[in-house]
Design a protein that fits this description.
Two copies of one chain form a homodimer.
Chain A (H helix, E strand, L loop, with lengths): L12 H14 L8 H7 L14 H25 L4 H18 L1 H9 L13 H13 L3 H23 L7 H8 L17
Helix pairs in contact in A: 3-4, 3-5, 3-6, 4-5, 4-6, 4-7, 4-8, 6-7
The structure holds a DNA duplex.
Chain lengths: 196, 196
DNA sequence: ACCTCTATGTTTACGGTGTTCACTTTAGGC
DNA sequence: GCCTAAAGTGAACACCGTAAACATAGAGGT
């Protein structure tokens, strides 16, 4: 009984906290759980958390990194279903916004608590890598690729945020309507259809 | 001595709270002040606040509305310096992002605490009105105008948020670089220069 | 002029939070 | 089989938002 769960001593508390933390963030409530609440859920005293994270912010950062992985996977999966690059590009953006709507609290946390731009340190953001990877193949110059990537990111992020904040109807069709920037990205045709 | 400040009994507490609240949000700290802290600053007991706002969220909403006015003014001022519509459009977007960078906490509050999309009720958002006003004149159909407005809003908002969250360098030149969406909006030329 | 009534502000209190500190337990290496 | 360092505990502190009961002052009718 020392393999995984059940016996927190030695081993699993940190993972258990992350797992329960993510689960809590997915919960219907629009609020992130408190440190104490989280400890309660996992059946441990509040202060035990401090054996694994220096403070709540560190916990949140870990959760945010977990979320980045999830987002990266979602986008990768979306991109893999696309036949050509332009479609990959479009589906990637759509997956981004959909992820935000599907995990609102986690998504917010990812950007509120994330690392402060000095990219190097932590594991590289997979979502960002995928994006620049695509735009590099789509653009002539490296400069244009970077600009394209950041502009696309901005649009998707803006749509996601405005929808999360209730400023724009969070409608699935509406996502596509807004993401279809027509002439902005010349390669982006009216080709691909809705995926299920 | 009953005209304005000095004697809170009868009159000015609500306004004083809003004023001090905005001031606190502008303060260097990246954190919104607590209810109690705010009351302390204004020299009143914590519970006195509840005579003017049902709860903290209501106070925040009032502050958010105040912020919207400020943003609206900033954009209007920016738009007024522009000779033609396309330039108005461009400068409006730029003013939006710059406002966010200049008042990060307030800007966040405006969208975190704002009314839930059912526009009607409160005073109409001046910034949004200005934007749709411009895009209506720029687009042929009403539909295209609305789409243009929301797409432009999304880009600006995305840039603002990503910069606030430290995902993108919050550089002044960079704002223009990203906001220049080239062919997206055909009318948008390379005409206008930097404003002081 | 008085008395009253209501709007405004105060004190006290409760449950919740993040975090610190001194302590106990426990698992694994010698 | 000890012993030590890692892992978990409980009490305590300073905050927070909010509720309830109380205090006061100022306007307005009589």
């Amino acid at each position: 009984m020392s393999t995984s769960t059940e016996n927190y001593h030695h081993g699993s508390l940190r993972d258990a906290l992350l797992k329960e933390g993510i689960a809590a963030l997915e919960g219907d409530k629009g609020k992130e759980p408190s440190l104490r609440e989280l400890a309660r859920r996992v059946g441990v005293s509040a202060t035990a958390v401090y054996r694994h994270f220096p403070d709540k912010q560190a916990l949140n950062r870990a959760l945010a990194r977990e979320g980045s992985k999830l987002l990266g996977n979602a986008q990768k999966k979306a991109a893999d279903t696309a036949p050509d690059l332009p479609t990959k590009f479009a589906l990637t953006g759509r997956a981004y916004v959909r992820f935000a709507l599907a995990h609102p609290v986690l998504f917010r946390l990812m950007f509120t608590q994330g690392e402060p731009v000095e990219s190097g340190e932590e594991g590289p953001d997979p979502a960002r890598e995928l994006l620049t990877d695509i735009t590099c193949k789509l653009s002539a110059t490296r400069e244009e690729a970077e600009r394209l990537a950041l502009q696309a990111w901005s649009i998707a992020h803006g749509i996601a945020m405005l929808m999360l904040d209730g400023r724009i109807p969070a409608d699935d069709k509406f996502i596509d309507h807004l993401l279809d920037t027509g002439s902005l990205f010349p390669f982006q045709g009216r080709s691909s259809e809705e995926s299920p």
